[in-house]
Design goal:
The chain has two domains: 190 residues, BirA Bifunctional Protein, domain 2, CATH 3.30.930.10; 43 residues, SH3 type barrels (Roll), CATH 2.30.30. 24% of the residues lie in helices and 33% in strands. It contains six helices and twelve strands. 35% of the residues are buried.
């Protein structure tokens, strides 16, 4: 497997956008990281808040041609697990979880956001661009509904960014490579559920503007959230159809 090429930029609109505009052949096995994003991307119309030079904002290109397009949610399961491999060694692992579909939470506060843009070649996947924003050394955040937190807030000490970046990229890549075998896929699925935020816990959500109570039972093959309500009826939600409150 070819090593990743690292491209450091002082300032960019978005590392995801920058990497997607590179020739597809050059995009694979390339990591673009920036000191400052002027319009970092989140899910949908969301933006990613990050003070210049304090956090890790990067995107990595990975050729996923070995995976069928219908199985692309497996990538959303593998990536956060790779990040956790590294973060578990530095933060209390019992407080870290994956909030569906792929954000990382520390307790009830957002530590890391992940945005994946994949190309499709017929029935197979092409090169995926994995955008990652990890709150590392920032101490103050706007009062977003996700109540962001950083590693420095938790550890009370500053973390060197570049060594952490390379550890994260290696760990994510190792998890992605597990998707090449049925055994690896089974391991990823099991590990993802074991770290899923609010898995098998009753909690409040918002659906169609109304507050509801749901119990997460799993994830279906399309990556949708499987739940039951208080009557025992099953409910399945796609992204943006249910809001965590």
């Amino acid at each position: 497997m070819m090593p990743f090429r690292f491209l450091h930029l002082e300032k960019v609109v978005s590392t995801n956008t920058y990497l997607q505009e590179i020739n597809e052949h050059e995009r694979a096995r390339c990591v673009v990281y920036a000191d400052e994003q002027t319009a970092g991307k989140g899910m949908g119309t969301n933006v990613w808040e990050s003070e210049p030079g304090l956090n890790l904002t990067f995107s990595m290109g990975v050729d996923m041609a070995f995976l069928k397009a219908v199985d692309q949610f497996l990538l959303s399961q593998a990536v956060p697990l790779g990040l956790l491999e590294v973060l578990d060694k530095q933060l209390p692992s019992e407080a870290l979880s994956v909030k569906w579909p792929n954000d990382l939470y520390y307790g009830n506060r957002k530590l890391c956001g992940i945005l994946i843009n994949s190309t499709i070649r017929g029935m197979d996947m092409g090169v995926s661009v994995i955008g990652i924003g990890l709150n590392v050394n920032q101490m103050c955040f706007r009062d977003w509904p996700t109540h962001p937190i950083s590693m420095k807030i938790i550890l009370k000490e500053e973390i060197a960014l570049e060594p952490l970046l390379k550890q994260l990229v290696d760990a994510v890549d190792q998890r992605i490579q597990q998707l090449r075998s049925p055994e690896g896929i089974a391991t990823i699925k099991e590990a993802y559920l074991s770290r899923l935020y609010r898995y098998r816990i009753w909690a409040d959500y918002e659906v169609n503007g109304e507050k509801v109570r749901r119990f997460i039972t799993g994830i279906d093959s399309f990556g949708r959230l499987e739940t039951i309500d208080e009557s025992g009826a099953k409910n399945v939600y796609d992204i943006k159809e249910i809001k965590f409150i």
